[in-house]
Amino acid sequence: MIAMNQLFGERFKSARLLNGFSLQGLADALGNKVTKQALHKYEKGEVVPDSEKLSLISDALNVRPDYFFRPMAVELGPIEYRKLKRMPAKEEQKIIEQTREYLSRYLELEELLGIRYEFKDPLKDFPVIREFKQIDEAALELRKAWNLGLGPIFNIPELLEDKHIKVVEIDAEISFDGLQTKVNGNIPVIAYNRNIADKLDRVRFTLLHELGHLLLKFDPQLTDNQREKLCHQFAGAMLLPEQTIREELGAHRNRLSVTELGHIKSQYGISMQALVYRANLLNIVNDNYKNQFFNMMKQMGWRNEEPTVYVGVEKATRFDQLLYRAIAEELISISKGAALKNMKLSDFRSQSLVM
Q: Out of the domains of life, which is the source (predicted)?
């Protein structure tokens, strides 16, 4: 009983943080049908609520009741943030718990299917990064290892999942882009904010930026800002290799057409601003033109909403594929599938079709 109480307490705290509630905030959301003092006892593992109160708490925290009794075997390693450092602690905890909770279900599903993958780092022997010119070499080596050629990359979240990097969608404030870490010592994870998904070029850039943090080894003398810039450059190099951008733009340009940039953006899934920034790094356009271009984008109100929208598919489907495979092979029940999907059974049944 003590062990069950402790498990419930740990899972209850995780769900509370995941939803961004304080104990008093949760009590208020429950209409004080469960007091703050009672919630405190649940979280400390002193007592487990009865079925009526458990149902109320589950609804308030958007989880199934069995969530609280499912062990969580997920240990996050050091987390590399982008803008999360400036976030309130409450929002940071919410992001971390969302990542942990999703991965606990994902890893349990793989365990049920008997799946064991070992991530192979294509850049493990690549030299320590000290300067920009190494970035293009690293991007080319990775593209070669993953057989990507020099053309556009389709569906980056799915590509990363195929290479055994877990991709997690996070519901967070718009200022948060992404993070990367390793789970249980050796499982690489990249999380990104689903609330930027209306700008798919930003999703692609964010995922590849975090991939740079995940795979590249940086000179310890580099500052955080320098590493950030190099990861920006890595994302640009992955989206548009040097040979490719020179074929698209030419060796040297005095001016670029916004329409021309829009066509390249539509093909390669890179923002026009990242494209011009990369062209400047490769000396295709000079500093003066780059500055003029960014001033023009600002004056036109295009810094956040560019005139051309990239339309593509940027969605990882591996979790759902594994889930329905497990159901079809009768390794798990529909009820267990709903639990792993963290959905109510009735909702899960309505969208599930197994022949």
A: Bacteria
Q: So what's the pLDDT on residue 163? A: 96
Share of the chain above pLDDT 70, in %: 95
* Stated pTM of the model: 0.83
**Do residues 115 and 139 make contact, with C-beta atoms less than 8 angstroms apart?**
no
Q: What b/e readout covers 286-316, taking b as 16+ CB neighbours within 10 angstroms?
A: eeebbeebbeebeeeebeeebebebebebeb
Calpha distance 72→14 (Å, rounded): 10
pLDDT reading at 243 higher than 90: yes
Is the separation of the CB atoms in 348 and 337 below 8 Å?
yes
CB 184 within 8 A of CB 75: yes
Write out pLDDT tens, residues 98-135: 888 899 889 888 888 888 888 999 999 999 999 999 99
2: pLDDT strictly greater than 70: no
How far is the C-alpha of 289 from the C-alpha of 277, rounded, in Å? 10
Which candidate, 71, 62, 64, 63, places its Cα nearest to that of 10?
71
Judge contact between 311 and 36, C-beta under 8 A. Answer: no
- Helices 224-239 and 272-281 cross at an angle (nearest 10°) of 100
Long-range contacts at 294-302 (CB < 8 A, ≥ 24 apart): 297/272, 297/273, 302/272
Q: What are the structural domain ranges in the chain?
A: 1-71, 318-351
Q: How do the residues of the chain divide into helix, strand and coil, expressed in percent and rounded to 5?
A: 55, 5, 35
In this prediction, residues 266-283 reach a mean pLDDT of: 97
CATH architecture assigned to 1-71: Orthogonal Bundle (1.10)
